[in-house]
Each structure stands twice: as C-alpha cells, then as structure tokens.
Amino acid sequence: MTDFWTHCLEALRESTPAQIYQNWYADLTAEVELEAGSVAIFVSSGFKMNKVREAYGQTIQQIVNRIAGKEMEIVWQVKEDETFAASMTNAEDNAPAQSPSEADISKTGLLPYLTFENMVEGQANQMAYASGLQVASSPKSIYNPLFIYGGVGLGKTHLMHAIGNRFLANNPKAKVLCISAQQYVQEFMDVMRLRNLNNERFSEAMRQFEARYRGLDLLLIDDIQSFGGRDGTQTNFFLAFENMVPHGKQIVLTSDTYPRNLKEFQERLLSRLTQGLIVTVEPPEFDMRVQILLQKAERSGLDMPREVAEIIAKKLKSNVRELEGAVQQVLAYTRFHQVDVTIDTVKLALRDIFKASSVPVTIETIQQTVAQHYGFKVAELNSKSRKAKLVRARQVAIYLARELTKKSLPELGELFGGRDHATVIYACKKIASERNTDEELKYDLHLLEQKIKS
Ligand code: ADP
Ligand code: MG
Prior knowledge:
Blueprint: H1 4-14, H2 18-25, E1 29-33, E2 38-43, H3 46-68, E3 73-78, H4 82-87, H5 102-108, H6 126-137, E4 146-150, H7 156-170, E5 176-180, H8 181-193, H9 199-213, E6 218-222, H10 231-244, E7 250-255, H11 267-273, E8 277-281, H12 286-299, H13 306-315, H14 320-337, H15 343-349, H16 351-357, H17 363-374, H18 378-381, H19 388-404, H20 409-415, H21 421-434, H22 439-453
Parallel strand pairs: 2-3, 4-7, 4-8, 5-6, 6-7
Antiparallel strand pairs: 1-2
This protein binds adenosine-5'-diphosphate and magnesium ion (MG).
Magnesium ion binds at residues 156-157, 222-223.
C-alpha cells in the first residue's frame, strides 16, 4: 500500500470527481525509478494514452512531482507487453537524501506532500492548526494525546501528516510512525490469526508488530473510530498508549466521530483518548474556501482569477475535497479545450457539480434523514409528543428545513405537524445558537447537511 504509484493514484482519486478517476486514472499502472527521476506510466490503449496525456498529463505530472519531492520525467507507454513493466528495474539504493524514498515513506508512513506550508489556515481550522503546530514544535507538549475531530474531507489526515512531517523536520532523529487505524487493526489481526496455527511464527510476528510501536517519539493514528468493536486491538493499543503518553511521548489521533459517541470502545481507553486536547476541524468558511481554491489552482499551474474562485466558493460549501475536485475538473476542461479560466468556462466545466449542489432539498428528505439519524419515525417527528430527545430531533429538522429550503415560517409549521410559526422561530433560534457551543450538535448538523444534499 505504501508504494509510490499507489500514493499518486490516491492523490489523484482524492482530488478528482469519481467518474473521471474511474474512466481515466483507475487502471493506469507505473514503474518508478525515483533516483533516476523517471516514471513510466502504462495505459491500456493508444487512444486512451493520447487522451489521458492531453487532458490530464499536467495533473499527473504535478502529483508525481509533489510525491517524489522533485521534478520527474514521465514516459508514457501503451500496455501491450506485460513483460516490459516487469523488466524495468526499481533500484532503491543510493536514493538522494533530499527526496523521500519509498523506503522512507513506508518506514514512517508519512506522506511528504501533506505539510503545514500547503495547508490553508482559516477560522474553521484555527484551533486545530495552532495546536498541531504546538505539538510538532515542542519536545513535551501539554496536549497529549491531541485528538483531532471533524467531518469527512475537512483536512484531518492532512493536518496529522503535517504534524508528523514538521516534528520529524524539527527532530530528524525522532522515531515517528503514522498509520491508519484500519491498517493497525488489519496488521494486528494478521498476527492474531497465527495464534492457533503456529506458535513460533505467532510469537515472532507479535514481537515484530510490537517492536514497531516501541520506543516511538510520536505516534499518529488516523480515523481512530475504526477501533470500535475491536477489543483485541484496543487492548493492544492501550498498552502502547501507556508506554508512551505517561512518558511524555506524543500521540495524535483523528476521528470523524466525537469521542463521546465512539461506539464499542473500552471505557478505560476512551478516557485516555480524551484526557489531552480535543480540537475540531470545521467546514471551511467562505474566505477560506476562496483561499483554498486559489492555492490549489496555483499549485496545479492554473491561472484562476479571484472572481472565479469566489463563484466556485459560493456554490461548493461542504468540504475541501470537493473544492479540490472542482479545481482538477477546471484544469482538465480548460486544458482540453484550450481556453482560459473565466466565469463562463468554469460554469461549463463544473456544470454537473454545480447542478448536483443546487438540487432542491425537500422537506421529506430532511424529515427522513433527521428521523433516521436520531432513531425516530417521521410520524413521531411530526407528533405532539414532548419527549426531550424527540423535541431535540424535531428542532434540528425544523432548523435544517429553514436553512435548506425556501419555505416560509407558517409553511414550515404546517409541514411539521401543524405547529404555529412561533414554535418554528424558537426551534431555529435555539439550534442556531447552540450550534456555536455544542460540539456534538455541530457535528450532527454537518453530517446531516451532507447526507441531505447527497
Ligand atoms: P479528512 O481526513 O478530514 O477526510 P483530508 O485531510 O483527506 O480530509 O483532506 C481532503 C483533501 O483536502 C486533501 O487533499 C487535503 O490535502 C485537502 N485539504 C484539507 N484541508 C485543507 C486546507 N486547510 N488547506 C489545503 N488543503 C486542504
Ligand atoms: Mg482522513
């Protein structure tokens, strides 16, 4: 999973609309010679090669350079002879020190292109960014563990790698490991599977597994929610935790679930995970979205006027990944048609994305989504019942309906079981004000908005 081309494809996938990725990138293969600075990319047909090269060649070049940390030469090949790929050497010896070799990446798990330098700072990530920097810069941080929490595509993984990269730059001798929780679970289970089969191999595998976590100065685990229900892994990780945090060794975690809502976690582990600092990454505000678009465009060699970025930022609000996808789409479109980036060309390039984001939201969708999220039936939402949890869900639904549809207050009252419009106003005000202070509510709303719009 850690090889160079896999990282390239991952980066392409993250920044490209799924359809384009599927059609053009998914089946590309490559052979890399990092120190020679060249990469051969294999395409399944001549027609496809010309097309990919023309429309997406620049994008691929950017990403390849970024991941290699230097200029790479791309050699395009039609995949007719399978033995060709196998015959290309992949020597890793004597890799130049300034560019990260595959071996380095797989040792620390850190992606070198996810840094603080290329992370836009804004209101939405201010706290998280600042505490991340703090953790990366001070030998014994007071935020331990640092728990980064937020919705999908908001920059948790990016921030986590940035912390690791900065930490390593500050302490080149430090032992750092960055891993996804899923991979941790997988590797642990692979070891456990040997237990009853072969005791010797099991002991050896367990020794190797645990050796990776011993003596670490910094451990970064992405998407910790994946530990849920994994009792064995949790017990094992608890020990790793106890070997690190009390001794001043730093742990950083990310999660798309608020700690209190992590399901099937051992109580003792949960209390350890939340004993440090919990910071939230929120959906980017307008100015930050504009900044991100301009930055991504510049890095892709795309000359995007500010007014164009503003138009896109007004339409696409939910997360950063979506903004990246938009930039890549504009890039492909304008390169392919050889036109400048203007409001008009962008509207054409992004018409599908824009259309999807402006599909009218119906009250039914809102009611169904909210009811399901809180474990109620739509009929209960619209009933007269005043059970506390139900009232809360109802207020959330009314608030979202007010935000996402054009219905008037009386109309909304009518649609929510014949309530008067004062009730509607009260619900909207209450949720709007609590949204600012209640982390759990904030997250619920973000999640619900994404679900309702998708
Ligand atoms: P998450 O882990 O929260 O789902 P990621 O860290 O994978 O989100 O971010 C999604 C994409 O958006 C990545 O390509 C990342 O580099 C980019 N990104 C996220 N936040 C920012 C930011 N503040 N500035 C620049 N790029 C960002
Ligand atoms: Mg992530």
